[in-house]
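Q: Given only this backbone (869 positions), what sequence would you predict?
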């Protein structure tokens, strides 16, 4: 078992951070690289963004410092080569030994994940060697892999694939086809140990063979350019997706030549783990990215916690499902956490470091040698042969025809795919339907919530109106209360003064009474002293005593009464009035607190309403409306497509009908016109025929006569010729006889030769005279024809029917053409040396208005009549 190796890479401050004058808050043991003291501290707990998260127990925390420890820490001075040689190269060696390895780059957007993994930019050319300084882990690994394989002289095969995970959707970055990719678990039953091993694979993902570094880098570049990137606040070319570049190595085993060891290297560039609002990424997208990253976090948490380790939630996201083996599985894994040193990113840096320190505790059980996946050579060759034969059959099919052709198997496969796509489409449309229903329901609920909102608003308005109306009343009550309070104090004061006055007057009264009493007593005493001598002194004494007693009683009575009155007043003032006053005050307080509570409640309700309103409008703006817009546009597209198809069909049928109707009309019109023409022509022909017959009847006897005469001349000439011939032949025979039977000393008689030649010459003259006579006769016939209503027209051969040619021909040509035509019609063979004019003249109507078409028709008719005749 070994822990995931966790490495932190801190880049230097970028332009944005420098421009923001954001100070460096990260403290590293070494600005380049530290493996012996791999500490990293954040200097400030509070940042511009607020309080940073609480440190976990494994971190040292002083008041303003939070320190983490990792396996390796790289600073801004560390270059690509250094990181590669310490992190990737050891893993490459293990990979060559047959161990599955994974390197993950994790961190906030713009901190250098893609830089670390690929190092591409528009200027550098990775396909040129030596590798540029900025080349990241993938190009360096590809280069080193082939170097090592060549050095080892191993029998190997390398395949690569490039996968993108964007919003939980998989894309094959090395394929032009948009085939649906599916994560599936496969069982590698060909393990050497015989035990069935499970691994996660991706159906339909292209795995392309590469033979050298250049081929590998070409594929990497192709896939890299297809990645989804957007400009965010933090990075102009921010990768919005997770990508996995996978290298698979099949290496022949040294001890068993029939077996190939298979190892896999996953090079993962994760999407930014940023805070949505700060990075400026689209909410849904960031949600999708974070869903995978959160799932990754949960997997790491579960792997950390023995209680949760019973069920590791690998299937919560595509990313964790695919990387199942890399986290807590049989793969040797390294995580590179990239961070920014600036204070403005301190929050994200802290959360990245927290994440990374949790990952540090995850334990994997990398397998090497006999435990790793082994494939029989036969199976490997069989797989490859199948692949090649399929490609070949596709190629053959394509070569034999133009366009894209597939062999039967591929076609069937395509059909199956097509069928499954159709099913998916159906499912999709069903989903759309259900979604649109949900949309409707949402719309309904939205309307309801709007209604609710408006009713709450109106209630709120009523309440605020009530509050408004209550406020002056409360103020009124308050002022009344204060007035009453002043009245009460005034009254109390008055009462107090009255009481004081009454007590003083009572005292005064008592003193006055006692003075008076004392005076009366003195008077009485005086009277008594005067009357002491008298008899009634005893009575007077008694009366005096009685009077004194009564007076005393009265005094006491008065005092007690005054006291009770005073107490009564006091009680009244201190008791009832106070209680009334207290209850009044309490009431006012109660009323005030009630007012304040209702005010607070109303304000809370207003804030809640505002939040709900914002949420609703945000939801409506960002998700609901986008979804609705998308579904509406999809529906629109679908409807438009349908409409277009039906329109197209309608147009087609209308056009067909129109064409048929036009053809029918044209045929009808042409037939009628033709019939008309034929009828007209027939009339013409009939007239011509009768004329012709008349003409022929006139001409024929002359011709017959001429012929008869010529016949006679011919016969005589013929006879003469025959005679001459027989004579000649006799002479020849006799000559030859003479030649062969005469003795050599006897020469033939050459004196007869001049005679013979003379005879031949005279015969020749006779013949030419006769021929001249025939010619003049024919001229005579022609002249005769020209005078009549018809002229003898050259009956052209079919090749000479064009009117221009006819018009352009000279008389000479016309005559020769008459002759040619006549010969072509005559059964007598054409003799170019002695052309014989046709005995049956062809005719042409002298009327020049007749169109060429009519002319042609007429000629045809005449020629056919000619033939018949
Ligand atoms: N260590 C480094 N040295 C030099 N430049 C760096 C370093 N790290 C990153 N950069 C530069 O910072 C910029 C952003 O880097 P990068 O695109 O790799 O970020 P990221 O983490 O992959 O972002 P995102 O998640 O948005 O794709 C790039 O221009 C890159 O060249």
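A: Predicted residues:
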């Amino acid at each position: 078992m070994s822990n995931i190796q966790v490495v932190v890479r801190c880049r230097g401050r970028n332009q944005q951070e420098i421009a923001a004058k954001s100070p460096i808050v990260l403290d590293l043991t070494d600005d380049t690289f530290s493996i012996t003291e791999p500490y990293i501290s954040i200097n400030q707990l509070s940042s511009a963004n607020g309080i940073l998260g609480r440190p976990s127990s494994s971190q040292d925390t002083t008041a303003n410092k939070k320190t983490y420890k990792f396996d390796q820490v790289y600073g801004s001075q560390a270059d690509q080569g250094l990181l590669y040689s310490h992190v990737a190269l050891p893993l490459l060696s293990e990979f060559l030994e047959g161990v599955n390895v994974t390197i993950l780059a994790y961190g906030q957007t713009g901190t250098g994940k893609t830089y670390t993994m690929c190092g591409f930019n528009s200027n550098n050319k990775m396909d040129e060697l030596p590798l540029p300084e900025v080349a990241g882990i993938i190009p360096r690994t590809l280069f080193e892999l082939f170097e090592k394989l060549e050095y080892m002289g191993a029998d190997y095969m390398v395949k690569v694939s490039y996968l993108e995970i964007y919003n939980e959707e998989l894309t094959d970055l090395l394929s032009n086809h948009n085939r649906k990719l599916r994560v599936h678990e496969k069982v590698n039953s060909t393990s050497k140990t015989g035990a069935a091993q499970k691994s996660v694979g991706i159906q339909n993902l292209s795995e392309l063979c590469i033979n050298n570094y250049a081929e590998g880098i070409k594929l990497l570049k192709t896939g890299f350019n297809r990645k989804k990137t957007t400009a965010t606040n933090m990075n102009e070319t921010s990768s919005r997706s997770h990508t996995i570049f996978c290298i698979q190595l099949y290496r022949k085993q040294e001890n068993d030549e029939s077996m190939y060891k298979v190892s896999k290297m996953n090079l993962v560039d994760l999407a930014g783990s940023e805070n949505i609002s700060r990075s400026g990424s689209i909410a849904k997208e960031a949600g999708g990215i974070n869903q995978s990253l959160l799932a990754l976090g949960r997997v790491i948490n579960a792997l950390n916690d023995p209680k949760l380790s019973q069920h590791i939630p690998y299937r919560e996201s595509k990313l964790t499902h695919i990387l199942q083996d890399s986290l807590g599985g049989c793969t040797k894994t390294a995580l590179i956490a990239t961070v920014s040193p600036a204070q403005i990113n301190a929050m994200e840096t802290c959360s990245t470091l927290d994440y990374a320190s949790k990952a540090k505790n995850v334990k994997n059980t990398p397998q090497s040698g006999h435990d790793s996946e082994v494939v029989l050579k036969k199976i490997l060759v069989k797989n490859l042969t199948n692949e090649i034969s399929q490609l070949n059959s596709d190629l053959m099919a394509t070569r034999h025809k133009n366009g894209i052709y597939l062999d039967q198997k591929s076609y069937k496969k395509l059909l199956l795919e097509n069928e499954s796509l159709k099913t998916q489409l159906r499912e999709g449309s069903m989903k759309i339907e259900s979604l649109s229903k949900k949309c409707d329901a949402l719309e309904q609920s939205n309307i309801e919530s709007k209604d609710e909102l408006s009713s709450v608003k109106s209630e709120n308005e009523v309440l605020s109106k009530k509050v408004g109306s209550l406020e002056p009343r409360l103020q009124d009550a308050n002022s009344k209360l204060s007035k009453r309070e002043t009245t009460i104090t005034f009254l109390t004061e008055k009462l107090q003064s009255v009481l004081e006055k009454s007590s003083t007057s009572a005292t005064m009264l008592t003193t006055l009474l006692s003075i008076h009493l004392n005076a009366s007593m003195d008077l009485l005493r005086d009277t008594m002293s005067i009357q002491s001598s008298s008899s009634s002194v005893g009575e007077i004494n008694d009366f005096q005593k009685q009077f004194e007693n009564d007076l005393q009683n009265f005094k006491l009575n008065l005092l007690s009464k005054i006291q009770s009155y005073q107490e009564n007043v006091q009680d009244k003032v201190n008791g009832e009035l106070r209680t009334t006053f207290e209850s009044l005050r309490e009431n006012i307080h109660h009323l005030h607190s009630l007012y304040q509570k209702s005010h607070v409640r109303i304000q809370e309700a207003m804030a809640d309403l505002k939040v709900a309103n914002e949420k609703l409008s945000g939801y409506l703006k960002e998700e609901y409306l986008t979804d609705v817009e998308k579904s509406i546009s999809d529906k629109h597209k679908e409807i438009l497509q349908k409409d277009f198809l039906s329109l197209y069909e309608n147009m087609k049928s209308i056009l067909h009908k129109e064409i048929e109707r036009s053809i029918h009309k044209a045929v009808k019109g042409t037939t009628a016109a033709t019939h008309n023409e034929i009828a007209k022509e027939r009339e013409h022909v009939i007239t011509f025929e009768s004329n012709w017959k008349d003409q022929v009847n006139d001409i024929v006897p002359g011709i017959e006569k001429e012929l008869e005469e010529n016949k006679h001349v011919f016969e005589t000439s013929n006879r003469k010729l025959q005679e001459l011939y027989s004579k000649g032949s006799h002479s020849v025979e006799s000559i030859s006889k003479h030649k062969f039977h005469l003795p050599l000393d006897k020469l033939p008689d050459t004196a007869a030769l001049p005679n013979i030649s003379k005879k031949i010459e005279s015969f020749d003259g006779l013949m030419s005279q006769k021929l001249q006579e025939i010619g003049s006769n024919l001229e005579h016939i022609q002249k005769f024809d020209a005078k009549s209503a018809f002229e003898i027209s050259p009956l052209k051969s079919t090749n000479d029917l064009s009117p221009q040619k006819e018009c352009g021909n000279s008389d000479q040509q016309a005559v020769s053409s008459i002759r040619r035509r006549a010969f072509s019609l005559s059964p007598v063979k054409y003799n170019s040396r002695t052309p014989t004019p046709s005995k049956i003249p062809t005719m042409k109507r002298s009327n020049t208005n007749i169109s060429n078409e009519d002319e042609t028709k007429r000629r045809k008719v005449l020629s056919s009549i000619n033939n018949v005749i």
